[in-house]
Amino acid sequence: MTAGPSGPPERILVVGASLAGLSAAHALRAEGFAGALTLVGDEPHAPYDRPPLSKQVLRGLFSPDTTLPRRPELRAEFRLGTPASRLDCEARTVTLADGSTLPYDRLLIATGTRARPWPNPEEASLDGVFTLRTRDDAARLSARFKAGPKRVVLVGGGFIGFEVASTCRDLDIPVSLLVRDGQPLAAALGPRLGGLVGTIAQERGVDLRLGAEIERMDSEGGRLTGVTLKDGERIEADLLVAAIGAVRNVAWLEGSGLAADEGGVLCDGYCRAIRANGDIVPDVFVAGDVARWPNPHQGEALVAVEHWGNARAQAEAAARNMLAGPATGLTRHDHLPDFWSQQFGLTIKLVGLADGADSLAVVHGSLDARRFVALYGREGRTVAAASIDSARWLPAYEAAIREGAPFPPIEGAIDQPRLRIEEP
């Protein structure tokens, strides 16, 4: 049994007022914490849900106000619109950008990520160039979509890019999607399934450009008028969305002594922060997108995932461990990463991490029907499962992934095709 930090806390500070931060706050009260609870957020908004921003909000189906529900018994102080700027682990204080200092007995770092900005600041400042991460981003972009742009250029081959492309087609907006790599969604789904999603996008009218990169953005009077590709082709467009990844919010931790870099804030399996010298900090915890932690389902390999389910589960584990005493011990965070995406009328779900898989097998349905379950294997073990519009088998495969079952783990099911194992 692993012991928790000594002494019950009277003051708990959560830096990061989003899903992970609010989930931790709710869990702390549910676990019986009655002391002072403060949440710090860099945005002026109360904690809100991000997944709808690239889907229902852009379509105009939801208001940008996707505020998460708050339980009446929360009794927390919110310091919003003022980011943290410094952590002093020895003094147990966090300094905010306005100069105020907040003490703590336990601290949760849940500062998440921000959209990676377009690398050319002059181009990034053009009217018509956007990123999509916050509710304010979504509100501004939704308003431009309603105005009817001539063409939208999306840059990036990840799920945000494809979800926004799907929204554009739903709104009958012409869209070009530029993917620098040879296959879209390859990191998340592998080339085979990523290529299938790319084909579906093309069938729905997306101008998909693989291996395409922008040489420069063209403008007139400070407004975007188009982009010129490295091969010399010009695409006329009045909107561009840079969906080129995320940056973990760790800059404020410089000088804190914690092991924090562009890969996230390092923590152990119990969500406790780790110093640069390898020592555990027993009163500082980490959760959500900013955390880099040992994943027991990948042989304790360090991972950082930007998934809704993990943010909530890790925050709840951190909350329990903040309050743990010698009698109860600490709770291991062993959430199996999972996520879902809706695009082009399809629901895509993934359990586990497909990155690094060396084999793939469709175990239910078929790729041709665009309704299937596919499994990923690595070194003879099942490591992930993906589905398109066919999620009823996923719980069974989730159990197989947790057990490290051989690949493939289930054969001879009623609706299972003849298995053919291939590269992912």
UniProtKB/TrEMBL annotation:
Key words, A-Z: FAD, Flavoprotein, Oxidoreductase
SUPFAM superfamilies listed in its UniProt record: FAD/NAD(P)-binding domain, FAD/NAD-linked reductases, dimerisation (C-terminal) domain
Matching Pfam families: Pyr_redox_2, Reductase_C
Domain Reductase C-terminal, first and last residues per copy: 339-409
Cofactor(s) named in the record: FAD
Every FAD/NAD(P)-binding domain range: 11-315
Keyword check for Oxidoreductase: yes
Keyword Oxidoreductase attributed: yes
Superkingdom as given in the UniProt entry: Bacteria
Name listed for the protein in its UniProt record: Rhodocoxin reductase
